[in-house]
Amino acid sequence: MQRWMVVLALIGWIGAGCMASSSRVPQTAGPVIRMPKSYRFDPPTLQVKVGTTVIWVNEDNFTHNVHFLSGADWQSPPLRPGQQISFTFTRPGEYRYQCDFHAQMMKGTVMVTP
Question: Where are the domains of the chain?
Answer without folding.
Answer: 26-113
